[in-house]
């Protein structure tokens, strides 16, 4: 299956008079955002991109909960709020719905940053934990028409992830340490969910970053 095949499959979900939600899951650095942005770009006005990252808990709340060093783990997201937004996107098609975004330089969620217009018949949402079967993540999966799982080469995934952390201010040593500690734990958890996906995509099927 090529990227063009994926594009056609996504387009087929976007039926007139209906709003579908396509989920793209995978471990940190797997290429989820790249694929989501490419699909939305190529589909044009009928599609919108809503990342899960807007539902990160704020650092102040993570500090209160004692979870700052676990940032990025499932318990550091508002999964219930994410599920509620997905339901709202499905139900409220006649007006603009605003979703939160995530500012990578600040490493903070930003309210009302992502507009989803009425004409968007397909919402592409991406995140690590779309296929988790615990807590409110079960409700998230229930709102998704399909979920595709990105499974790139592991060395490439880690390399991209280190580069991303460096791009947003970490030293090389700090980036490697974070990837091998926090991100790797999350990656192992996510890898165990791939069998629940409708489609598993290998490196050859994923667009270049």
Automatic annotation (TrEMBL):
Keywords: Kinase, Transferase. GO terms for molecular function: ATP binding; kinase activity. InterPro entries: P-loop_NTPase, PRK/URK. The keyword Heme does not apply. Residues 21-202 form the Phosphoribulokinase/uridine kinase domain. NCBIfam families: PRK09270.1-2. This is Nucleoside/nucleotide kinase family protein. It comes from Streptomyces roseirectus. The lineage of its organism: Bacteria, Bacillati, Actinomycetota, Actinomycetes, Kitasatosporales.
